[in-house]
Amino acid sequence: MVTIAEPGTKAASRFRYILDRRETLGAIFVAPAILYVLLLVGGPFLLAVYYSISAYTIYDPSWRFVGLVNFAQVIQNPVFLKTLGNTFLFTFGSQLLGLILGKFGAFLLMRPFAGRKIVRALIILPWAVPIALAAVAWEWMFDSLYSVINWSMIALGIIDRSDAPNWLGNPHLAMLCVIIVNAWRFFPFAIVIFLAGITSIPQDIIDAATVDGAGFWRRNYQIVLPLILPIVAVGLIFGIVFTFTDLSIVYLLTNGGPINATSVLAFQGFQVGIVSGDVSHGAAISLFMLPVLLVVVIIVLRFIRRREV
Amino acid sequence: MQRIVTRVAGEAGFYLAIAFFVVVTTFPFYWMLITSFKTNPDLYDVTNIPFWFNEAPTLEHFRYLFEQTLFARWLLNSLVIGLCVVAITLIAALPAGYSLARMTGRNGEALGIGIFLTYLVPPTLLFLPLSRIIANLGLQNSMWSLVLVYPTFTIPFCTWLLMGFFKALPPEIEEAAIVDGCSLFGAFVRMVIPLSLPAILTTVIFTFTLTLQEFVYALTFVSSSAQKPITLGVATDLVRGDIFFWGEIMAGALIASVPVAIAYNLLLDRFITGITGGAVK
Amino acid sequence: MATVSASNIVKRFDEVLAVNGISLAIPDGEFVVLLGPSGCGKTTFLRIICGLERQTSGDLVIDGNIVNDVPPRARGVAMMFQSYGLYPHYTVRNNIAFPLRTQRVSGTEIEKKVKWASRLLGIEFLLDRRPRQLSGGERQRVALARALVREPTALLLDEPLSNLDAKLRASARQEIKQFQRRVGVTTIYVTHDQVEAMALGDRIAVVDHGRIRQIGTPTEIYDEPADRFVATFVGAPPMNLLTHNGACLGFRPENFLPREMMRDGAVTEFWFRVDRYEYLGSERIAYGTIEGFDSTQFITAKLPARIAEESVRPGERHLFAVHRQDLRYFDHDGKRTRGH
Ligand SMILES: Nc1ncnc2c1ncn2[C@@H]1O[C@H](COP(=O)(O)OP(=O)(O)OP(=O)(O)O)[C@@H](O)[C@H]1O
Ligand SMILES: [Mg+2]
User: What interface predicted TM-score (ipTM) does this complex get?
Assistant: First the structure.
């Protein structure tokens, strides 16, 4: 019944329209980005792994394979163990503090009030401004002589000039300082993430819960929290990764001191690998960040997968 | 009566809490501001009340910054680095984001996630090998090393952002253009790019601010003063011997902070949508 | 203008078989309507014809050339999208001119053609506006002008009227038909609205689950449905079906009348018990059951409104009849058969 006209001319050449194929052009389109990332992230990453199992230093750039010796040496170093502990303390201390402040701040900013826009703009500042610059301001605020914090406490009669704390000179206080500065830097991000999560919940879900008789706490913990959990998790992952691998705050505020009290993994990797030029040991130290990163990556992937279902 | 009292107390508590947050977040910046305009005798006298001016404000620190230091050079360096990185990033991330959003199907999804994950690979894991690579390229101590390295995080980040934006664009318009006689590439250039200009602008500004915020790579790769970007210069180069020139440091930090702060605030909402990638949708 | 023919086109999206072997030959200048329920693969088939999707298998021939691997821009077909797909950053003038620009037509020629197309559709006064500033009906005309302006080999329309309100839809239907007549372009029109299909099509292809169930003129489709699906999909209310010994007997509601209204000719009689009436102004639809037959759904009769309700009372049994030539028979697979 169906009659097909005989094709007049032959079918077009296979290659004439090669760029009109989605797959072909698509591959060409992603290629530059993939190449850049492969060459300057993938390659160096493998190189870092190789450094850690070789005897490479900038004075003796041999590629001699030494196996896990570097790692063994690193682990036996008490300074490294302290550093490892510091890193976890620094990361989780500041994330916890940041999350608490963030949740509380988001809670405040949820309610409309006059000037909310301005308040939000001001609260964002610590996260927006380059951390190195903010860290310098904090360093000045923690100054051993002219600390404005000490001045205020003295003026209020809380402490005496003679026993004013040396914030960055005392091992315990120094750790507290870097944690506070990092939390200060991250909690605005947490606020923003919480707010984004909360505003993304359709109002009718909350209304429905209210009609169904859910009270304030039940609404908050059984409806709102589960719904914003994915978004909060994404934010938390960012926070953990960037804190765990950061060295700028420590470098600028305390330079790892006093006596390694605030030394963290990234900082030690920098000291050993760059400053001292012992690349292989530096790489080994840096690679200790990898397990934590892997755990985080797995969590991210699971979230993304769940989102697709 | 009782109810009014509790109500008023509640309101007062609310605004107090808000005030607490604002003070906590902004005080360091207020501190930058006031320090940068104070005279040195005013700064370094513990009997003065530090919160305001005890002597007339001065522009001395700013003058010193521009005349006696490389500050202007750092500004210029940062501008050059930022613009070059923006250009490289756009060239790579625009087509990549579009491809992942529209042209690569299932594989694209996986690739997109892969690219995004590289954004999470920290500089502190890569700086050792990268510093060797840069040395081999003869770029050590040069700001061009940063132009080379910064796209390693701006490209993944912007690809991810742009992918989200492109996915939100209705496909009919490109498809109409394709049926009307455009090639795929033509539809991308003539429809997709003009229609996503706001998103592209957002990406540009964010890339720029990311380059301004970066510290670790700059610290690792650049040690000669004249090649430093502004963040690094201000944070590490204004110390003479062991003496910190707080007035100058704060003045420099202030100048470098203001544009970034403004950019963030203008684009915050777009940024959040991008970063969370519709995690709750 | 050209012929379009598809042979055994199959499109598979992972698990979903969206198009399952469609063969269709459309002569030059014909207006074919693809009619089918939602999700049956109509849009997918159109997108294959214009080249936005690549068929999994099968051949597509436009104007005598196999175009399986030819990209959309080289096929010369025009498509009007359900949501029109107007270019928001262009004025109406540039929207209409766009298909010509991509073909590198000269400026004066473009101007002439844009004028022609906009006059054809009566939208000359809109040329300097942007799509955002147009009403739904105006947008539809602009989209049509853009589709027609370069005199496409074939014009594809995907539910072009579904965004319009009922009244506008009726007039737009008329206009589309008129333009198509005047321009004489081969047209494939997709809809799930049978009224549109009947009013517009030279031929109608009824599609279900990615297959063409029947193709024919509106009269053929309505009067000689090829199977039970077509019989019940076309016509409102649909054809009545009575199952009998596994086979199936069908007749249209308007042919099912009280016995006393039938004059001559061979008729088949049924006892019909009316359950309720639906008054539609021009006619009255009676819902009820027929004695002696099991049927899963109500039998309907479309009675002229002038028949008084009293003559056939709800709840009472009444003798109805159908002319023998109006009876259709289907076998137990649902295929049409010659009859007993
Ligand atoms: N890109 C795609 N990926 C996967 N499945 C698809 C895709 N496009 C269409 N489908 C599926 O193919 C089938 C046919 O879809 P199609 O859009 O052609 O239907 P349609 O007849 O146009 O329906 P409607 O009248 O609702 O527009 C549907 O089941 C649909 O889910
Ligand atoms: Mg459709």
Answer: 0.83
